[in-house]
Design brief:
- The chain has about 400 residues and is an alpha/beta fold.
- About 40% of the residues lie in helices and about 15% in strands.
- The chain has 13 helices and 12 strands.
- Helix 1 runs antiparallel to helix 8, helix 4 runs parallel beside helix 5 and helix 9 crosses helix 12.
- It binds pyridoxal-5'-phosphate.
- Pyridoxal-5'-phosphate binds next to helix 4.
């Protein structure tokens, strides 16, 4: 197979699966009847609606099973951002008489960080716990941040930029010991690594369909039974009156099938992805000078590799990779287009000039060794070309820096 974008080279290489994934054919097939045939509102009484209601039920079961939850603890939403907003704002509202202090981390997704900042404008206090050089939460800092008025700990399961997986079980135990609710943004983890809300002591968990080969615009919030947070969307009685609005039946069916597919092949897929990821990481570190891996060397998402290349701009690297048909990212899709370096890379202690030269490659089970080999060769060429134009690189080679 030939890759790249010239006349005879047409194949694209998609290495941005942290931004979104290709929806599975199986998911699409399962969704189709629920657009033009079984279009009934699943809340309706007549028997025509029975099929839709049953399909929603089935999907809820499959979605819950993947994290060891009960089906009545799954509340479908329009995605990860909505679930994060709902969890944090609703806990703040429910407990504001008990306290107004929230603990999160410096490397959260903007859906969490900006919600916390919104609450800060409305009288809440937020502690942003630091991470170590690999992006792991400092547990001692987390424990000492706890106060009598702390009402929520919200820490992501796995980071979307550098892939570091957090010690959820330890965090859950700390939360439980102190009788504080624990929310986790598991958008990058759900369907990719094993999660269990019981074992990990998770009270609230956000996930999103399009990050694990399901449809876009559908996600869910897991709310542990007994946690009495209110609704974000007011209206009808859907989702036990906690998330109003006619159910997105095709989307719900889709996320259910995607969850089922993920659960069936999880171990096998993880093994395959880890092998290819490590092959990629080892080649890049060995063959490209002045390069480092960001994130934890072992406790990282099976499909995530994130590098910094000194003396170059990540944006230029991305544009030149795109010219070769390679889709990659500099980190968060939300910061692309802005010139600020990623808050995650700064949080793990990288200086601004190095954080600017970052590249995130996120694989899927469909990624091949051939694609990785082609990508590594292109990175080598492009990095060399960009450095040849960099006065800083010249100076450093002459020993001026
Ligand atoms: C993608 C992502 C989100 C947002 O999910 P949407 O479904 O796109 O709203 C939130 N958190 C993390 C960690 C993500 O990777």
């Amino acid at each position: 197979m030939v890759f790249g974008k010239s006349e005879e080279k047409q194949e694209m290489i998609y290495l941005d699966n942290a931004a979104t994934t290709k929806m599975s054919e199986e998911v699409f097939t399962a969704m189709k009847p629920f657009f033009c045939e079984q279009y009934a509102n699943p809340s309706a009484i007549y028997s025509f609606a029975g099929g839709s209601a049953k399909a929603v039920d089935e999907a809820r079961k499959k979605t819950a099973a993947l994290i060891g939850a009960r089906l009545e603890e799954i509340y479908f939403t329009a995605g990860g951002s909505e679930s994060d907003n709902w969890a944090i704002r609703a806990v703040a509202e429910l407990y504001n008489t008990k306290g107004k202090h929230i603990i999160t981390s410096t490397i959260e997704h903007h859906a969490v960080l900006h919600t916390c900042q919104y609450l800060e404008k409305h009288g809440f206090e937020v502690t942003y716990v630091n991470v170590d050089a690999h992006g792991k939460i400092k547990l001692d800092e987390l424990e000492s941040a706890i106060r009598p008025d702390t009402i929520l700990i919200t820490i992501m399961a796995a980071n979307n930029e550098i892939g570091t997986v957090q010690p959820l079980q330890e965090i859950g135990a700390i939360a439980k010991k102190n009788k504080i609710l624990f929310h986790t943004d598991a958008v990058q983890a759900y369907g990719h690594i094993p999660l269990n809300v019981e074992e990990m002591g998770i009270d609230l968990l956000s996930a999103s369909g399009h990050k694990f080969h399901g449809p876009k615009g559908i996600g869910f919030l897991y709310i542990r039974r007994g946690v009495r947070i209110g609704s974000l969307i007011h209206g009808g009685a859907q989702e036990r009156s906690r998330r109003a609005g006619t159910l997105n039946t095709p989307g719900i069916v889709g996320i259910g099938v995607a969850a089922d597919l993920a659960s069936k092949s999880l171990d096998e897929r993880m093994k395959k992805e880890i092998e290819l990821r490590d092959y990629l990481i080892n080649r890049v570190l060995k063959e490209v000078p002045y390069c480092r891996l960001n994130g934890h060397p072992i406790d990282r998402l099976p499909n995530n590799a994130n590098f910094c290349f000194e003396f170059i701009e990540g944006e230029s690297l991305l544009i030149l990779l795109d010219q070769q048909g390679i889709c990659a990212s500099s980190g968060s899709a939300c910061t692309s287009g802005s010139l600020d370096p990623s808050h995650v890379l700064l949080a793990i202690g990288l200086p601004h000039e190095i954080a600017h030269g970052s590249l995130r490659l996120t694989l899927s089970e469909e990624t091949t060794k051939e694609e990785i080999d082609f990508t590594v060769e292109e990175i080598k060429k492009i990095v060399e070309r960009l450095r040849a134009m960099s006065p800083l690189y010249e100076d450093s080679r002459k020993g001026f820096v």
